[in-house]
Structure formats: structure tokens, C-alpha cells
Amino acid sequence: MKLLFSVVLSALALLPVSAYAQSGIYFNPMATRVSNSQPDSGQFAFLGDGVTSRTFWGANIGGYYDFAHGKNIDGGIDIRDSIQGANTARMNNFLIGGRVVFKSISPSWRPYVQLSGGVGTTKAPHVAVKTSRARYGVFAGADYKLNRYIDVRVFEIGYGQLTTTSTVAAGVNTVGTAGATYPSSNLLSFSGGIVFRIR
pTM for this structure? Predict the structure, then answer.
């Protein structure tokens, strides 16, 4: 997963850039509130035994390439990988998506929205087993132009869902729970930091 991300990010940086194209690379701290309506128990419980929500901390690294340009908006792609942990549990999300940047508000401000999809990998606190599942995310944020090469990502808020590692996913069902399911967890993320622009 990390090798794939490195290859894609390198290719993104090497793409031919037209006079109006805009690309950037970012590395930002982030926090994600992971919650589930149903508590899980046992060693495969991702959030912890009987816990229904927990905040994960980590970093978000990625890049974007805006190749389509209109009078008031730009369009492009965003590729990112986030690595987070809490209570010795681990979560990694690799996402690729389309983004739209609104540039009519101010020359210095670049608010954006994007829809991304990819793979989320989770590991419970006390086991080495990892579970990888499809995940999606919707994000909205704003970058502020500091100078020719650096933007400040003032904020980014995201929402998505992911089926995490669980007792059911591990196939550990007790008598009377055959066919039991564990719902997807809700992910509410907050991020901000620095963006290095490449023209």
C-alpha cells in the first residue's frame, strides 16, 4: 500500500504541467473520530472492548493536480494516504478522488470540496490481523495562499464510512450469533497544515 502510494505520488509530481495547471503536495496532522452504534467485544474489537467511539491521531500525506480550469472553478484529482492510531489500534486509509476548487471568492483563498474512494485497513489493539475494506470520504476545506510556493491549509473536514476489524469480521461468532453482522463505522476527520505548491 505504501509503495503504491509512493509510485502514484511520484508520477503525479512528474506530470507535464501547463501554464495554468496547479499541483501541490501536503503533509498535515489530523484527527479522526471513529464511532459505531454497536459495541464490540473481545480481542478483535477495533475501538476497544465495549467502546463505541474513539479519536485516532496521525498524519495525512498526499498531493493534488488541478488540470481542468474554468472561470470560477478548477477541477482535478487528489491522492492521499492517512496513518493514524489510538489505544494501540491502527488505521490506514488510501484514497483517490475528484476535487473542485472555487476561485471566485478571493485571489488568496482556495476553498475546495472532493469525493474520494479507496481502501481502509484497520488493526485491533491486541492482534496482528489486519482487515482491508473499501471506503469512501467526502471532504471540504480551504487553502490560503501564503506566497508563490506555500499555502496554509486552514482547515479540512471529512466524513466517511469504513467496515473495521471486528469480532464478526474475524469469524469469531459464539453460539446463537451465526450470520451476525457488524455495522460500518462513521469517520469524522479534521485536518490542517502546509501545502507546497508546484507550478
Answer: 0.83
